[in-house]
Amino acid sequence: MVEYDAVIVGAGILGLSTVYHIKKRHPNKEILVIDKLNAAGQAATAKSAAAFRCLFSSKTNFLLADSSAEFYRYVQEDLNVDLKMRWVGYLWLFNEENYEKTLPVLRDLYKKGFTYEEYNSDELAEKLGIRTNFVDDEEAQLMGLGNAYKGIFIPKAGLIDVDLLVKFYESEFLRLGGKIQYVTKAESVVVEPGEPLEIPGEPYFWQDANVVGVNTNKGTIKAKKTMIVGGAWSSQLLDSLGVECHIKPKKRQIFSVKANTDALGKLLFTKGFNDVGCLPFTILPNPSVLIRPVLEENAFWLGYADEFPRAFKLEEDSQPEENFYQYGIYQVLVKYFPQFFGCHPFSAFAGLYAINTLDSQPVIFEENRLMVVGGASGSGIMKADAIGRIAAALYSGDEYAVLHGGKAIKVSDLGLKNRLVEPEKLII
Amino acid sequence: MVEYDAVIVGAGILGLSTVYHIKKRHPNKEILVIDKLNAAGQAATAKSAAAFRCLFSSKTNFLLADSSAEFYRYVQEDLNVDLKMRWVGYLWLFNEENYEKTLPVLRDLYKKGFTYEEYNSDELAEKLGIRTNFVDDEEAQLMGLGNAYKGIFIPKAGLIDVDLLVKFYESEFLRLGGKIQYVTKAESVVVEPGEPLEIPGEPYFWQDANVVGVNTNKGTIKAKKTMIVGGAWSSQLLDSLGVECHIKPKKRQIFSVKANTDALGKLLFTKGFNDVGCLPFTILPNPSVLIRPVLEENAFWLGYADEFPRAFKLEEDSQPEENFYQYGIYQVLVKYFPQFFGCHPFSAFAGLYAINTLDSQPVIFEENRLMVVGGASGSGIMKADAIGRIAAALYSGDEYAVLHGGKAIKVSDLGLKNRLVEPEKLII
Fold first, then answer.
1. Helix (H) or strand (E) run with residue B154 in it
2. Are A327 and B200 a contacting pair at CB < 8 A?
3. In this complex, do A328 and B204 lie within 8 Å of one another by their Cβ atoms?
4. Is there a contact between A281 and A89 (Cβ–Cβ < 8 Å)?
5. Which residue in A45, A152, A398, B216 could disulfide with A393, CB within 3.0 to 4.6 Å?
6. Percent of chain B whose pLDDT exceeds 90
7. Upstream peptide bond of A309 is cis (omega within 30 degrees of 0)
8. What burial letters (b/e) apply to A111-142, b meaning 16+ CB within 10 Å?
9. The whole model's pTM is what?
10. Structural domains for chain B
11. Which residues, numbered 327 to 386 in chain B, qualify as contacts with chain A under a Cβ-Cβ cut-off of 8 Å?
């Protein structure tokens, strides 16, 4: 039987970035990626809101997101691979309370050279045509909606085409000689004793035991290193080995609404924020419903990351819920943006966040010849390049990973044993 | 419909200790315990190794275990409720390396007034009839067995009858007017909006949402407070609400071997360690197989807490695995204790540890009117009284819980948001 140097379970954005960086550093290693679906990035990766931002308060977040965005910019501008990156910026609306809480963090970041622009409620009302104050609106108060007291515009942020990004990593990995096998589902992980003694049921606890590959619907694949990069599905494989990755699945939904009225067309192409001449990626005050402009579709994507009591639940084919739009998102949205009155989504999709319930940051660790990469908690696209480089550094046995742009991060910072990640103060 | 003040899911040792302490402090509250089985403490509680120790390096562990053991002593000696507590002590065998690592911790504890006794390998060989050195045993070396270089005897430790302890808490709770309903399975948790608006599918994310009870096979039970104390099963109910409790299930097995030879009878009634005149609860060096004397059954219970690749897996009726004894425990045991040569278990049982994968300490927290108590990670019996008091303090809104003996612990130390538990250096 062929033994690969490494087999990677999962051809999502994190799996592909990881193998691209490993293969680039180790061109002679035989690397195989498997995925249960029939093409790359078809699961949660395809269901992303496809946005990125570089402004974070946590050093970890900043390093991962900023270096990844700069790498994507390099791919697009220097390698001339169109990723449809658009620097439309993030516009973040705050009520009084959250603005007061956020201000010290922003000022601190400003001193470090991060730029942002501030808008007051009158400016927001004028530029966006939104309602900013609900003091006379009993219904809005019952709903607990926050006033749009201030808007913070972050220019270093924007949109990206995830499918093009996936294809970049996939094609580069293949060009370097990597192999991908689709429609191949990892059903279990193979564990063998270091020194097999042919005892039934081995390894026993007094034996060394290592992961040596995966059993799939197409047979067993052996490898010197096995990597689980299965997004929300990783914990299922890892639980069967008693390996805790702290990743839980949560459904996230996006609803697409056409800008098919004059008012919505004007909103989509709001001027004055960015060079693209469109609405930034916008986050409402409270609850923080998000609005992503989709220029190619003349549409807006609308979403909300709901917490309690949204279940941690794996499902093969997550479906968006009509009521979640109708009674959830729409009710909030239309209070701020009357332009959306009467709007129905023309399409919708849902995917699974792979939430790291420790600290919402990625985990990248190895034990018993098994590597685990995941738990990006909804920031997988915007951090994928850095995560891939850190995973490649772990694979290579390096203490530090060098990210695009030259900054370094300690590999063990994102591991489990000596984990060291700064909590994020700028939370959307 | 009746609304209880509190409904508690799970009549295991932690659930019963919790409701006993709540009811004692709030005699007028209507408290209902439900359990899917037909009596108290029949799941993992009944499958415990039924031992306790008070010597821990972590302040948290010490507070929980010492105060609980002192309470059980009080119940037995002052309340004259026989719990069959026997202070047989723990005898902990170390190889050279682990002894060197443990020595500074022990010396530090000694300075604080904790007593222990140390035995060298010759003394161990003489007292126990064990082999202490495997330098000439190729097979033992292949198995990675550690020499019995030193033995540390901890006197403040011993055995307890878990069923009697369960019955104590159950009967006291009932005597105080508490209610228990068996054969009642919590199938889901009921969530309702703070202010119902009769919208289909509410609560939506812009509404306040709270837990108001549980749906069971016997109908819905409403309560002002709902507590999940379901051991390894807790995460199943909590996952459906997106509430992370960091608890995972892992099967643990115990095999019972009769002391039916002269050599084993002599070993069971080893003199010189304790007043009972029996073998202490003994832990082998590496792997740390455990031997629990069971005087009433003229037997030894044998166990081992295996890690990788033992799965995190829920199962209704965990079964012990013959091979785990035959090729696992027995092979290790007989190398140290030739007295066990040829021994087969006459009975065996298996249960689920509720492992807290954060730090192996209990979690006691509340959110959205839902309380969670669990994750004792195999130390539930020996810490049950303290855990119940802390849970009762949380229920009462206290900042500190006063444990038996008068020491206090901050309730939030065992919560999730401001968790503060010292890592344990004395790990078995």
1. strand B150-154
2. yes
3. yes
4. yes
5. A398
6. 96
7. yes
8. eeebebeebebeebeebbebbbebeeeeebee
9. 0.97
10. 3-51+163-246+358-414 (3.50.50.60), 90-154+249-354 (3.30.9.10)
11. 327-328, 331-332, 357-358, 367-368
